Amino acid sequence: MHLNASQITVMLPVRDLTRARDFYERVLALPAGEPRPDGKVVYHCGGTKIALFPRAEGTKAEHTALSFSVDDIRASGEQLESRGVVFSDYDLPGLKTVEHVCVLGSEKAAWFTDPEGNILCLHEDIPSPPA
């Protein structure tokens, strides 16, 4: 068995599957999800699967559950904001956003939540300077 060759599925709990599907399909513009017999809805996204599954208590995670790699974080953020996404801003030691974006070493990041409380992120790699 070689896990490095396995497809990865991110599992996200949701309280209201209809509301979550609207967000993922309309706001994030993912292709329509595939309903599964066990109640999950699965999305194909960049070689990874995202599975929303009904859970009465929703999520308890206080960390980023899912991060989308983008080429231009500002343009991607503006596009999502135009569809109603509200980005989080932080001013903590070692974590400060400016216009919703934080520089973290070799990447830029911007966070938002889905309607179910899952913390999502956009991130953009910062090119390394030439040697």
Secondary-structure topology with pairs:
Layout: E1 9-14, H1 17-27, E2 34-35, E3 41-45, E4 48-54, E5 64-69, H2 73-82, E6 91-92, E7 95-96, E8 102-104, E9 107-113, E10 119-125
Can you walk me through this structure?
The chain is α+β, with helices and mostly antiparallel strands and 131 residues long. The protein has a single domain, classed as 2,3-Dihydroxybiphenyl 1,2-Dioxygenase, domain 1 (Roll). 16% of the residues lie in helices and 36% in strands. It has two helices and ten strands, in the order βαββββαβββββ. The strands form three sheets. It has a four-stranded mixed beta sheet with strand order 1-4-3-2. A hairpin with a 5-residue loop joins strand 2 and strand 3. The longest helix has 11 residues. It starts with 8 loop residues before the first strand and ends in a 6-residue tail after the last strand.
- Rounded to the nearest angstrom, the radius of gyration is 16 Å
Question: So how many helices?
Answer: 2
Number of domains: 1
- State the end-to-end CA separation: 38 Å
The first-level CATH class is given as Alpha Beta
Largest sheet: 4 strands, mixed
**Approximate shape:** globular
Number of strands: 10
The assembly state of the depicted protein chains is: single chain
Summarize the entry for a quick read:
Helix content is 16%, strand content 36%. It has helices at 17-27, 73-82; strands at 9-14, 34-35, 41-45, 48-54, 64-69, 91-92, 95-96, 102-104, 107-113, 119-125. A hairpin with a 2-residue loop joins strand 8 and strand 9 (107-113).
